[in-house]
Design a protein that fits this description.
Chains A, B: Belongs to the FPP/GGPP synthase family. Chains A, B: InterPro entries: Isoprenoid_synthase_dom_sf, Polyprenyl_synt, Polyprenyl_synt_CS. The structure is a homodimer. The first copy, chain A, is built from 16 helices and 2 strands. Chain A is mainly α. Chain A starts with a helix and ends with a helix.
């Protein structure tokens, strides 16, 4: 068995290669560029770890891992167009570096590439893996759609928000673990618990991401603090504040939201404090983290084999406040 | 066995339904809208006919047919964004009716839908079908990329052009026939000849489309005549004229190309006549049509079973000049 960090290193080395043909250059070079700008490769590594819980990593799992990473990058490539983001991991996005048409078509090719990787899986396992993968792929599109829909809505509930982040970011991590487990020989029972572990871990991670946008250490977070607040993004913190705030506090919050005051971030954080949002947010993240670990506990393998998945949860959720 | 026209009617009825869930509305409704605006469903019908050459239509083939039609519509949806086309079959395209982000994401969901249809094929045939499908899907993206690349080039050769239209439009028809044949129980020999029949038929059809843009009957063609010429589109007619024209004729052609004269179309058609482009184009189409039929002849089934595929070629290539 490998440690979490060993698998991160092994997978990064394996994946760091040219994935597409040389021609047509304007189709495939941007796809390879986008893959080369990195990322944590968390989904394929999760897939490999889930396989290793049950046995040696099979050839099938390496192919599934590549498919998951290609799919994830396809979604990022198209999301960057839809969100009009100029930078990804500090590098130019494809629609800025090349143009919008290239970002669309290279993304399409990357999605086809994900399916081409899946098709290297042995025939006896292929249909089962594709069923999980396709379901998840639809869900990720649905999550992106809800995220875009929410931009023009003012009545998004916390439940709706949680459902959106589950679809947009958590199910792909969950499905990575489930597929890796099944390809490693796991029972349905074990694979399903790993799915739930991944889903809840993914939700906790996304809640943390929203939290850090407000309360993070700017150097450790690597992004500007308060970006979501400035853009009035309906994160779970704002949704909670809007649900909680009453009377004068509510009026204040609404006034700050529509203001262009340069102290807007500090003022809204003050309202968050009045509503107890910070503590509530920390608690909510802990609830999802605990739920994730409770599913990991239920997986029927000897406790020592689970160490890498506990380390993985620590790694994802350790981020400094 | 069914006639070509019977299969067209049966498939249209089967396919004319809601393909996606009701929610999220802004993701799936545009996809169903786009599917509902019609089209000739030539690829799935070709797939069904190729199966019927060899035996009764299997459940697998119906699923493959749906996948091919969904894939074709996915490419149209994204191509309309890339080409900034406002109309498709006389109806608003999705990026105009909804918005660009919707066109991108609904197209993505449609591509995933194509793979979900393929995954209904029996496990024993799935990998073989996916291998052909994925290869073709990459090629269609490559064709679209070359088409876009050619817009900013002035030195496109006839061979490059033929390769572009082969990738962009012919290989999907070819692969539809090949997959249908294999799912109907055909040998590799027969399926390969049907692939070549479809590929050459597709090229002849596309050449005809370019030809009709210059020489068609406006009422029968259903589009404005000379649209390609007005936009200086590098069709095979213009490429041939640029390759052939010498001296004074060449200078005249270049001058007309850069002019905004309202008689531009007539003047360029005059140059085409001087270069013998019309006759050459008719001959080239006939060459590809003959090549297609020569491959159909080589398919080893009794001659009477092939009638529907001869009718299909007649239907595609019968269009009035």
């Amino acid at each position: 068995m490998h440690s979490f960090q060993q698998l991160v290193n092994i997978y990064a080395q394996k994946f760091n290669r040219q994935h597409f043909p040389a021609e047509p250059f304007n189709l495939y070079e941007p796809a390879d560029y986008f893959l080369s700008i990195g990322g944590k490769r968390m989904r394929p590594v999760a897939c490999l770890m889930a396989n290793e819980l049950f046995g040696d990593i099979s050839e099938n799992t390496w192919h599934a891992a590549d498919a998951l990473e290609l799919f994830h990058n396809f979604t990022l490539l198209h999301d960057d167009v839809m969100d009009n983001s100029a930078l990804r991991r500090g590098k130019q996005t494809v629609h800025v570096r090349n143009n919008m048409n290239t970002a669309i078509l290279s993304g399409d090719a990357m999605l086809i590439g994900a399916y081409a990787s899946l098709n290297k899986i042995e025939a006896s396992c292929l249909q089962q893996v594709l069923t999980i993968f396709n379901k998840t792929a639809f869900e990720v599109c649905e999550g992106q759609q809800y995220d875009m829909d929410f931009e023009s809505r003012t009545d998004v509930s916390l439940d709706e928000y949680l459902r959106m982040i589950t679809l947009k970011t958590s199910v792909l991590l969950a499905c990575s673990l489930q597929i890796g487990a099944l390809l490693g020989g796991a029972s349905k029972y074990n694979a399903d618990h790993l799915y739930e572990y991944g889903k809840n871990l993914g939700i906790a991670f996304q809640l943390q991401d929203d939290y850090l946008d407000c309360y993070g250490n700017v150097e450790k977070f690597g992004k500007e603090i308060g970006g979501d607040i400035k853009r009035n993004k309906k994160t779970f913190l704002l949704i909670k504040a809007l649900e909680t705030a009453e009377g004068e506090t509510r009026e204040k919050l609404k006034a700050h939201l529509s203001s262009k005051d340069e102290n807007k971030v500090a003022k809204i954080l003050d309202v968050f404090d009045e509503c107890g949002v910070k503590q509530w947010a920390e608690d909510l993240k802990k609830q999802y983290a605990a739920k994730a670990l409770s599913h990991l506990e239920k997986v029927v393998v000897t406790a020592d084999r689970k160490k890498q998945l506990y380390d993985f949860a620590d790694y994802l959720l350790q981020r400094d406040y």
